[in-house]
Design a protein that fits this description.
Length: 456
């Protein structure tokens, strides 16, 4: 439960909200406690009290100092304030609240009204305002200043309630957001998981690519993987079908001829010999095919144990062409090699020779008399490219993407020992050398196979 994205999100939001509101509350508290308005209001009230007292003093009805004091004390009492009368030499003459702690009044100076904060003997703070009287004495109004906690408590309506309300709203919002966000993130994940389950049961349901970027990447990768899996399963099925089919034909003829020999229907010794020859040829063909298939399987599995040594490609091609020249001359095909520099790659020389020998064999097979086969070696950056071009019949566009497949033969009628495995093996060998093989072809004009290998 605590591991679910939803809970985690909710906890995170909750923490963020608490911290944010805590900071706001602290700032508000500092502001409220330090608020100068509180003092200003206090001094204003005291000023009004003193001004009223002064006006009363000037009025005709007030004659004596005692009258003036009485007036001031009365007004102070209506404001719940304390009033003091100070003599010109600074002694407290009267105090409306003599039981309250004594004020440490500073020496009062000047002709105007003065305001200030003073501390009592017991350490509490008082706000005072003082008015100078005609006789040189002072009339003082004093009120205790509230403690910061008391100020906060008094102002709680102003800040505590809105904060609590804000917290509730934010919490509700966080709940909705966490719900929505977690669904947005997890829905595509659950969908991909469900698709993976059904894929395990053999059904491929494409995952819709939506939700957050990361989930879309995952969905795309999953779909790609599933498609490749399907393709590889399909090609595996095809492969098994092809192998069975390819083995069936020679086996049928072996079986037929062997039966004929056993039945005695093969006839005379000469006929028996020719039947035995067919059997031997077909068995040899099957043997070659099985060996090739085993080889392919090893290359596929990466257990072919390729050597890794420096291979000089120009010399390798020169030797190969030297070997093929008599065959080319017999076929009336011109064979040429073009290479400006030597190119060395790291790999298995015999295997690479197998690749080019296969390409050249194919070119010879498909190029009519009078045609040309050109081999070009070219260095390109960190790679070497070997192009084998012929002026043969070319490969139809619909066959082009398939010629590297196992058992694919362009011309099905032509069996002549070819099993359609040559290019498949060539591609596996080139891939094992971290290279790639590509083909370009125009029907009637010829084909070019390009092998690209990393230089040593
Ligand atoms: P195979 O030669 O045994 O049939 P490959 O794998 O070598 O098998 O080639 C597959 C198919 O590609 C061939 O059957 C042929 O149709 C086509 N092909 C290969 N090389 C050439 C070429 N140089 N010109 C025309 N077609 C070619």
């Amino acid at each position: 439960m605590l591991n679910s994205l939803r809970t985690r999100l909710l906890i995170t939001y909750f923490a963020v909200i608490t911290v944010a509101l805590g900071v706001v509350a602290l700032a508000l508290a500092v502001f409220i406690v330090r608020n100068p308005v509180i003092y200003r209001r206090l001094y204003m009230r005291q000023t009004i009290t003193l001004q009223v007292a002064r006006r009363r003093l000037k009025a005709a009805s007030v004659h004596s100092y005692a009258d003036a004091w009485r007036e001031a004390a009365q007004i102070a009492a209506t404001f719940h304030a304390r009033a003091l009368a100070i003599s010109p030499d600074g002694h407290v003459l009267r105090d409306t609240d003599p039981t309250a702690p004594a004020l440490n009044l500073p020496p009062l100076k000047g002709n105007r009204m003065v305001h200030g904060r003073v501390r009592t003997a017991d350490g509490s703070l008082w706000g005072i305002s003082a008015l100078r009287l005609a006789n040189g004495g002072w009339l003082v109004i004093a009120e205790p200043l509230p403690s910061p906690l008391k100020v906060l408590w008094r102002a709680r309506e102003d800040w505590l309630m809105p904060l609590i309300e804000a917290a509730l709203v934010a919490l509700l919002l966080a709940l909705v957001l966490a719900w929505w966000l977690s669904s947005w993130v997890t829905r595509p994940l659950y969908r991909t998981a469900a698709a993976a389950h059904s894929l395990a049961e053999g059904k491929f349901i494409p995952v819709p690519e939506d939700g957050p970027q990361e989930a879309r990447v995952l969905a795309r990768a999953f779909n790609e993987m599933a498609q490749r899996l399907e393709a590889s399963q399909r090609s595996q099925r095809e492969f098994v079908a092809n192998v069975s089919h390819e083995l069936k034909t020679p086996l049928t003829s072996i079986q037929g001829f062997a039966q004929a020999i056993l039945d005695g229907t093969a006839g005379d010794t000469e006929k028996i010999r020719s039947a035995a020859r067919v059997i031997a040829d077909e068995a040899a063909r099957m043997h070659r095919m099985v060996v090739t298939l085993l080889d392919l399987a090893r290359l596929d599995a990466g257990t072919a144990n390729l050597r890794r040594e420096n291979v000089a490609l120009r010399s390798l091609l020169e030797n190969l062409l030297l070997r093929l020249r008599p065959q080319a001359e017999a076929a009336g095909v011109d064979l040429s090699l073009e290479a400006d520099a030597e190119a060395t790659v790291l790999g298995d020389g015999d295997r690479l020779a197998q690749v080019f020998s296969n390409l050249l064999d194919n070119a010879l097979k498909h190029t009519p008399r009078g045609g040309k086969i050109a081999v070009r070696l070219r260095r390109a950056g960190k790679f070497v490219e070997i192009a084998v071009s012929d002026t043969g019949e070319g490969i139809p566009p619909e066959s082009l993407p398939r010629i590297f497949e196992r058992f694919y033969r362009g011309d099905k009628s032509r069996t002549g020992g070819s099993a359609g495995l040559g290019l498949a093996i060539a591609r596996e060998i080139v891939r094992a050398h971290r290279g790639e093989i590509t083909v370009q072809s125009t029907v009637g004009q010829g084909s070019t196979f390009v092998v690209k290998l990393p230089l040593a």
